[in-house]
């Protein structure tokens, strides 16, 4: 039960980054206090749970989500029994199987789940990942025809729901689609299309990523095997892959997704999968994995293969059982990720300049450029969205054709509108889901298509959005910010999409030390009036007035807003604030 307060939190209506701070309503404060009284939980944890709508009697179960209680019946999804039965028939008859996977983390993990399961059952599978530049997203007729000529069964993962022409080309084989992207009015020719976002589904499981759909298919396959008196592979040991996909694909961390990620992180911590172990080492992970590591360290490196390198590198690394091969591919992905970052920075600068020229307060912020690498346009669209609080689309043009990606804001369904524009003939093709979409457009129709999308998005309120507010969980005194509290807060996680990590404000803090780190970041040490100190780091602080204000503080006091984390250094643990915003305390008297 959250309500927008009538007054900005701590009266901060314009912080150093220009944002209004919004905090919990009075009603939510009362709910949090009632939870403290009923459960004995720290007030900070109670605030998080109350904000999630958790009742006091549900707190214990919420803090320890059990997969057995939350995992849906796979058969609740249409075509699931058919898909699993056909999959098992291929296994029993020793048919040749090909897996056609998307080139991102969700596709790579989905393919690996199937490859791992089949390997344990003594059967190989052919992996096919399309090249982002030469083939684009999803199945294409030449590739499907070639695979069909050499295989009995093709399984499309994280793609295929809208690929009517491509699946028609696979006449020599049967096809199963395991996907989660928004479906059209009709389904392609296939033995089974398992997708919680089919138009004839209830939508109850619309938050699942493709890897979770594949996992449910394997749950159903194992169940059918048990009915036949045979035991299938241990699926719990595969949850590291499902967790990685769920976080990296920005699936909402609600319901069963919370349990999948929590259990998957435990599996990953055991370091039994050579590919993930090698990648964690390359990424410098020296602590137990968290959802942050999946989204910001591992995910981008796996995606780098599909963005600027060889498309199948991620899936090959994840699926190999050879540690030496895993290490070699992990090193290559790390190099490609550095290359991706350099390309991304160049495109971002040009795209932002172009978007500013058109106006950043439009219902749709967009940019297009010749030679922009298609592997980074999605990331740059995400950056534009974050900077403007508007849906954003970024398009790379090549020989009269534009290929682009879009990212949306909460409450604005971009995927449906892109699909509509494609149906109207303004786009060559397009689709996705509420928060992300991909499209292909003729350069001659670019302006018309973007104008139409802007009009459609404006009807959903995209043009009326103000600067993105900074939502805070509540106040916290630095003396209460302990390692023990952070560990208790983590039990309310994992945090990510639709379940943001709690953000606290440390009020009236003086800065005793400030040091610039690199060109864009700053580290500070802050103290309250009791002398309790806390270290903080603000990444990208010098991209806004935040960095200069903290660096040249002049003895002023600040309200500091950010997320608590445990800093591991020299074998010791300490509390650190990941600082996101600040406001001069004297300017915002309560």
UniProtKB/TrEMBL annotation:
Gene3D superfamilies (alphabetical): 3.10.310.30, 3.90.1640.30
DHHA1 domain: residues covered: 366-458
InterPro entries: DDH_dom (IPR001667), DHH_sf (IPR038763), DHHA1_dom (IPR003156), RecJ (IPR004610), RecJ_OB (IPR041122), SSDNA_exonuclease_RecJ (IPR051673)
Pfam families per UniProt: DHH (PF01368), DHHA1 (PF02272), RecJ_OB (PF17768)
Keyword Metal-binding included in the entry's annotation: no
Residues covered by the DDH domain: 97-246
Coiled coil (UniProt feature): 326-356
Keyword flag Cell inner membrane: no
TM spans (from-to): none
RecJ OB domain location: 476-581
GO BP term, pick one: DNA repair
One annotated GO molecular function: nucleic acid binding
Assigned keywords, A-Z: Coiled coil, Exonuclease, Hydrolase, Nuclease
Family, per entry: Belongs to the RecJ family.
Name assigned to this protein: Single-stranded-DNA-specific exonuclease RecJ
Species whose genome carries this gene: Harenicola maris
